């Protein structure tokens, strides 16, 4: 009772049938013996060696718990919200359908109480304290214990509070340099590039000097600066430096103060009442 009062037991999350330990699903517990010491092997008929066992799981990672268990006959319809338990059997094994076990699954955070444990007895007269009678199934008596359960408390992930000062700066960080291999592998040349290369070699072979550079219309034309832009020739170096030093960089506030416009004229014009035009009926009365 102390486990149920304090809610320290883990709830049952799934119930299933299994042939033996080899077909037992992962993280499931097999009920091999009853509470009175008998074998908990369910068989279809007398003299058959193969059978099946009941098993349950308490893994909460799926987010579902078993809130109730019922045993119904093959003629009864399955209750609303319930489902038949899964079967993990060998190829030749089968479960008797005269009486079937069904469970009701509920999300972990939607219920406060669930099935905490499942036990079997071979004698119907034997009573288990703190357990609820579910029903008879294939010569065994099924018991379950319900109560409050302890849901796992989600643990907060440790957070790193160290902030990068670069992210707090308004200046943009410099662009990362492009990494280039020291010895880049040769790129495969296509047919077009090979043809273009052959055309260049044929064109260069026609030149008498054998140079690989082509001759343009600007070859041999001397370059000179226009006299209007030649500062040293015109003697305007001091004047230009004076003009550059007198340039004032205006701030955003200076620009707003200089070009601020209140739109008072437009506002007063919009508030003026328009003169009303008299209708034809009013002019005839006069």
Question: Could you characterize the architecture of this molecule?
Answer:
The chain is built from eight helices and ten strands. The protein is an alpha+beta fold and 286 residues long. It has a four-stranded mixed beta sheet with strand order 2-3-1-6, with no helix packed on it. It has a three-stranded antiparallel beta sheet with strand order 4-7-5, with no helix packed on it. Strand 9 and strand 10 form a beta hairpin.
Q: Which radius of gyration do the C-alpha atoms yield?
A: 46 Å
Termini, distance in Å? 105 Å
For the largest beta-sheet, the strand count, sense and barrel status come to: 4 strands, mixed
> Structural class of the helices, strands and pairings?
alpha+beta
Query: What's the average pLDDT?
Result: 76
Poorly predicted runs are: 1-7
Strand content: 15-25%
Number of helices: 8
Please give the number of β-strands.
10
- Secondary-structure element order, N to C: HEEEEEEEEEEHHHHHHH
Overall 3D shape: elongated
Helix content: 10-25%
Q: What spatial order of strands do you see in the largest sheet?
A: 2-3-1-6
């Amino acid at each position: 009772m102390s486990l149920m009062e304090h809610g320290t037991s883990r709830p049952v999350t799934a119930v299933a049938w299994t042939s033996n330990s080899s077909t037992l699903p992962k993280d499931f517990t097999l009920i091999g013996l009853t509470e009175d010491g008998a074998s908990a092997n369910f068989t279809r008929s007398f003299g058959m060696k193969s059978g099946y066992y009941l098993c349950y799981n308490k893994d909460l990672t799926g987010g579902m718990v078993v809130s109730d268990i019922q045993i119904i006959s093959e003629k009864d319809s399955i209750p609303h919200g319930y489902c038949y338990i899964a079967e993990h059997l060998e190829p030749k094994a089968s479960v008797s359908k005269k009486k079937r076990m069904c469970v009701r699954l509920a999300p972990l955070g939607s219920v406060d109480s669930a099935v905490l444990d499942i036990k079997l007895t071979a004698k119907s007269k034997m009573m288990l304290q703190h357990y609820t009678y579910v029903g008879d199934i294939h010569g065994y008596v099924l018991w379950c214990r319900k109560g409050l359960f302890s849901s796992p408390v989600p643990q907060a992930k440790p957070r790193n509070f160290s902030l990068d000062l670069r992210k707090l700066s308004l200046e943009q960080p410099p662009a990362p340099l492009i990494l280039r291999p020291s010895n880049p592998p040769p790129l495969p040349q296509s047919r077009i590039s090979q043809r273009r290369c052959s055309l260049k070699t044929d064109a260069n072979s026609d030149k008498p000097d054998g140079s690989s550079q082509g001759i343009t219309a600007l070859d041999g034309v001397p370059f000179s600066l226009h006299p209007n832009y030649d500062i040293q020739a015109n003697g305007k170096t001091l004047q230009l430096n004076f003009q550059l030093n007198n340039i004032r960089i205006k701030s955003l506030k200076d620009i707003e103060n200089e070009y601020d416009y209140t739109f008072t004229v437009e506002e007063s014009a919009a508030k003026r009442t328009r003169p009303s035009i008299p209708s034809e009926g009013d002019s005839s009365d006069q």
